[in-house]
Write a structure and sequence with these properties.
Layout: H1 6-30, H2 36-39, H3 47-54, H4 56-82, E1 90-93, E2 102-105, H5 106-118, E3 123-133, E4 136-145, H6 151-170, E5 177-183, E6 187-191
Parallel strand pairs: 4-5
Antiparallel strand pairs: 1-2, 3-4, 5-6
Helix pairs in contact: 3-4, 5-6
């Protein structure tokens, strides 16, 4: 499962659109849409290509270095996107605990959240996962609704009930939550 977010999708869409535009412009130039003077020219017949040719001793090593850096950054991004966040073990419940820390198993919490959300009207299935560290947990919830469900009502029901219960139990009113709501089996909307 990929853990891509809006930024990744936006940047990849921008990159894809830019490459598509450049390719389309090249095809149009080659088919004389911009005039016959461009269709007959060589790709290297321009001032930039002449500059590169005149400075090839240092230019190509700099381009190779930039390519290695870009490949390293792309590999780092790919690893970050494809690697799921670490699951939390036992969650330390915040608050004044004079007799020692109180912990809650992350799987038990996820099961309780899933059971509660599954009981709501219009929910076909749900899944919850607790990620992060024991002292700084994060909750990710994926919900699939029936196609005729009122999405706004489902979202408010989850936020007002299930998330309020979780935040109260953990004594963390600012618990970060990612809520993915999928309608039926096709459309997915992300609510943060």
């Amino acid at each position: 499962m990929m853990y891509a977010d809006r930024t990744n999708r936006a940047l990849l869409t921008l990159l894809g659109t830019s490459l598509l535009a450049a390719g389309t412009a090249g095809v149009l130039a080659g088919t004389e849409v911009f005039g016959s003077h461009l269709a007959g020219r060589y790709l290297t017949d321009n001032p930039i290509a002449r500059y590169v040719g005149d400075n090839s001793i240092w230019f190509w090593p700099v381009i190779a270095l930039a390519g290695v850096i870009a490949a390293g950054l792309a590999l780092r991004w790919l690893i970050a996107v494809l690697t799921p966040p670490a699951r939390a073990g036992d969650i330390v419940i915040a608050g004044d605990r004079a007799d020692g820390p109180t912990t809650l198993n992350a799987g038990t919490l996820a099961d309780a959240v899933t059971t509660e959300i599954d009981s709501y009207r219009g929910i076909d299935a749900s899944h919850a996962g607790v990620y992060g560290s024991p002292t700084d947990p994060r909750l990710a919830i994926t919900v699939r609704t029936s196609s005729d469900a009122d999405i706004a009502a489902v979202r408010h029901h989850i936020e007002d009930d299930a998330l309020t219960h979780v935040r109260h139990v953990l004594n963390r009113p600012d618990l970060p939550v990612i809520l993915d709501i999928a309608v039926g089996k096709r459309h997915t909307s992300r609510v943060s």
